[in-house]
Amino acid sequence: MDAPQTVPRLPIALTMGDAAGIGPELAILAWRDRKLHGLLPFAIYADLDLMRSVAASLGSDLPIVDVSEVGECAGVFDRALPVVSVALNQPARAGEPTPANGAATILSIKRAVADVAAKRASAVVTNPIAKAVLYQSGFAHPGHTEYLGELAKEFWPTDTAQPVMMLCSSQLRVVPVTIHVPLKDVPALLTTAKIVETARVVALALRRDFGIASPRLAITGLNPHAGEDGTIGTEDRDVIGPAVGALRRDGLDVTGPQAADTLFHAAARQKYDAAIAMYHDQALIPIKTLAFDEGVNVTLGLPFVRTSPDHGTAFGIAGKGIASAASLIAALKLAADMSARRFRAATA
Fold it and tell me: Which of 20, 133, 145, 183 is most buried as measured by Cβ atoms within 10 A of its Cβ?
């Protein structure tokens, strides 16, 4: 029998997020507790002066080292937080976002993805961005997920990327079919094909990235009581039901459409590996209730691993020394696990 392949310990590329948010201080807190949580080496793509300023504001003498590229971080990670320099256009003030630094936020993401594509890093972990601020600086994508899909096309032109957002914790994995759209637009955006495509991406990711050989999917209805056979809206019967049938014909273990109000209690969660919801809040309310500080945002369907804390920029608490790094730490650990599984599968 061949000896098992040793998983290479490539570092993780951590993006800056919005420079005025809590992302930079979360990186510092995660590095401080790196041994406690067994974190693999990571480098943050950020402004060097910003990182030193944030460390000082936290009353920390934490060593911060400028590295020319992410591959160098393994040699310094035990003694210092490695920073791949991405310069801001103007100094950042905690809690005061400015479009002037939007270009640096975007460049941080692009450089991190480029280094994964070049096999200098194993995965991308993104700190939170403020979409409204980025829109003012010319950002043309609805959010992180969509921008990462575009980067996948740029750096992996032969790959067919189908980015799908999953929120996960130890208690629940959930995927919204529609994401950042007004609630009034959801019914028109839901199609049988879109639900089927989303579920297929989720099933593949559960097998490849989470090690679940036979994933079980629960699909919610759109309307109260999953429409009650068309008496409370017809989408459940005419759109979601046919998607469930098609997925079952694919051989997938799928249930639904199920009433969303009875799908997320403890006993119900034991019956599926991931729930696919029809819109943003239907998916995010239960997981943020169950795991507000530990949830992780994962983009499925990409040719690279990407995770992120399941929270926003938190401008209101930035710089106050009260932010929790629990979700970022969970995202770093999950990214390491996912990239290791992908490596093993590719070399099996």
Answer: 20
